[in-house]
């Protein structure tokens, strides 16, 4: 493997389903300078055999303890690929929904942070109020039930724990284009991203 003098930038977009992560990732790929690879929950789920679905997309609640050992290894595989691509000089945008609400403590986030040690990583919280999440679900699937499903509540409660980020954006107030612009400005500012350093030590 050829290691480049300068590793590629890594951007992690962490948020709930329907929060807008995928749209922001696409905007980053289309508009940021350089080659931006996308490795995240959707990419991993497409590679996962049906009997192990939803893989790393497993929602909070500890519903499938038999899947959890595989999920740990899937995250390890994904972050190994992210590390390799960055070391080869590719930029990587990662859209994911971290949580620790499994049947037991798995420590996936600090483990993932340790895999990226020494690489330039910006950790971004993709925030979106529950009301907007429900509106997007209704707009997408034509649902008329106003009740908030329990899995949606659990995602909203768990995905931003412990809430350590370099930057946060609210997708109910900013479009994907605007979010990407804010992220781009943060990277260009030269500020030292420290969220992954803090998460690595947890």
UniProtKB/TrEMBL annotation:
Gene3D superfamilies: P-loop containing nucleotide triphosphate hydrolases (3.40.50.300). It holds the Pfam family CPT. InterPro entries: CPT (IPR012853), P-loop_NTPase (IPR027417). GO terms for molecular function: ATP binding; transferase activity. ATP binds at residues 15-22. The active site is at 42. Keywords: Transferase. This is Chloramphenicol phosphotransferase. The lineage of its organism: Bacteria, Bacillati, Bacillota, Bacilli, Bacillales.
């Amino acid at each position: 493997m050829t290691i480049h003098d300068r590793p590629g930038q890594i951007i992690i977009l962490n948020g709930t389903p329907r929060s807008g992560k995928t749209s922001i990732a696409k905007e980053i790929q289309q508009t940021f300078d350089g080659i931006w690879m996308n490795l995240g929950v959707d990419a991993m789920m497409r590679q996962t055999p049906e009997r192990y679905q939803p893989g790393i997309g497993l929602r909070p609640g500890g519903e499938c303890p038999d899947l959890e050992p595989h999920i740990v290894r899937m995250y390890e595989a994904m972050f190994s690929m992210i590390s390799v691509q960055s070391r080869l000089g590719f930029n990587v945008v990662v859209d994911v929904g971290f949580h620790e609400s499994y049947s037991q403590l798995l420590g996936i986030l600090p483990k993932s942070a340790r895999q990226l040690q020494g690489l330039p990583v910006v950790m971004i919280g993709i925030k979106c109020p529950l009301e907007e999440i429900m509106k997007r679900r209704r707009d997408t699937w034509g649902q008329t039930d106003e009740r908030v499903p329990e899995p949606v509540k659990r995602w909203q409660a768990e995905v931003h724990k412990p809430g350590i980020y370099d930057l946060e954006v609210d997708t109910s107030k900013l479009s994907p284009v605007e979010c990407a612009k804010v992220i781009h400005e943060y990277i260009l500012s030269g500020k030292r991203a420290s969220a992954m350093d803090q998460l690595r030590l947890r």
